[in-house]
């Protein structure tokens, strides 16, 4: 805590900056880039290179107040079944134009709550995906799991379809915190879910936690982490709560007076990180932790760690194909996002057109800056001579950015030759330092807190 005042002076507790799971961020996307760009990018894919596939299931039986994802509530399966039909139609549209022989190296189901699907819809959707994207030899299938919306039959269905990594949403186990965010999830329910996943042979278990929630305290987050560690998770993601009620109206149900201030958020994150490292996990980037024998740790040590819309990953596929409402696809040439609203997405599918609503085409300089930001977020360092191997002499254009970083964020950002590195005690500033590379900050956009 001895560096707290220096971090404060550098603006950590005042700044709002992107999380940089992409560059540029979705705030820079434009409707000028859409279906025609998406079609061209899909047609030009190299069938020898596996792709990642992301499937968005936007439905929840309950809408947690803290969540800012594109979701909608439902108590019946009718809307879900109609949505699955739209997904199948989108898959067929994609299959009609991608090159023959294309395979998927990664598949991720996110939401919403993918485990709202009963076993029969799990099998049906999985079969539809595999008809278009056969799995590559080294295939990873991950699913976001809500322990209150899953049972043994659903887990067995997912396992039979190849799920080998599960990501369990926990947030916090304290009853008062759970009540304040509209997500009641008993520890016993979560433990039963973990036991069912392990019994089904799921080799990799992720747990997602959130700091900065209402009524959180050091004692409460310590108790939550103690409980989480009894699950022996392979990976842990520790995200800072982003209070953005102007984006997610349901967050207006959260009492802002009960939210910890920026300094308290910093202490919560710091203490949580200390506990995970003390338990033998390796710190990965700014907000992940993994067992020493996990592939995420191996990727970090080998210099292959990547960052995408799900956070830190071992996924090295250059293409991500997003399916479903609000999903974002990433191609070498840029990004494209499907219509966010479920109704708008389904309407576009029904008319036989690609559901993309907006996107962004990358310039060569965008690609350079994106790579530099990813290097900084993954390894806390950027070496322009290393970047020159990929981008040639253009990489040297970023030298003024490195000089600015070293000046603005001294003593934590240290410039040696053409290499900038962030000292361990300055890593809470990483997103702020990375923003120096960012040339796309639209006016009026309010990002999440840096702390």
UniProtKB/TrEMBL annotation:
<keyword id="KW-0479">Metal-binding</keyword>
<keyword id="KW-0963">Cytoplasm</keyword>
<dbReference type="InterPro" id="IPR010723">
    <property type="entry name" value="HemN_C"/>
</dbReference>
<keyword id="KW-0004">4Fe-4S</keyword>
<dbReference type="InterPro" id="IPR006638">
    <property type="entry name" value="Elp3/MiaA/NifB-like_rSAM"/>
</dbReference>
<keyword id="KW-0408">Iron</keyword>
<dbReference type="InterPro" id="IPR034505">
    <property type="entry name" value="Coproporphyrinogen-III_oxidase"/>
</dbReference>
<dbReference type="InterPro" id="IPR023404">
    <property type="entry name" value="rSAM_horseshoe"/>
</dbReference>
<protein>
    <recommendedName>
        <fullName>Coproporphyrinogen-III oxidase</fullName>
        <ecNumber>1.3.98.3</ecNumber>
    </recommendedName>
</protein>
<keyword id="KW-0627">Porphyrin biosynthesis</keyword>
<dbReference type="Pfam" id="PF06969">
    <property type="entry name" value="HemN_C"/>
</dbReference>
<comment type="similarity">
    <text>Belongs to the anaerobic coproporphyrinogen-III oxidase family.</text>
</comment>
<dbReference type="InterPro" id="IPR007197">
    <property type="entry name" value="rSAM"/>
</dbReference>
<keyword id="KW-0411">Iron-sulfur</keyword>
<comment type="function">
    <text>Involved in the heme biosynthesis. Catalyzes the anaerobic oxidative decarboxylation of propionate groups of rings A and B of coproporphyrinogen III to yield the vinyl groups in protoporphyrinogen IX.</text>
</comment>
<keyword id="KW-0560">Oxidoreductase</keyword>
<feature type="domain" description="Radical SAM core">
    <location>
        <begin position="45"/>
        <end position="279"/>
    </location>
</feature>
<keyword id="KW-0949">S-adenosyl-L-methionine</keyword>
<dbReference type="InterPro" id="IPR004558">
    <property type="entry name" value="Coprogen_oxidase_HemN"/>
</dbReference>
<comment type="subunit">
    <text>Monomer.</text>
</comment>
<dbReference type="Pfam" id="PF04055">
    <property type="entry name" value="Radical_SAM"/>
</dbReference>
<comment type="pathway">
    <text>Porphyrin-containing compound metabolism; protoporphyrin-IX biosynthesis; protoporphyrinogen-IX from coproporphyrinogen-III (AdoMet route): step 1/1.</text>
</comment>
<dbReference type="InterPro" id="IPR058240">
    <property type="entry name" value="rSAM_sf"/>
</dbReference>
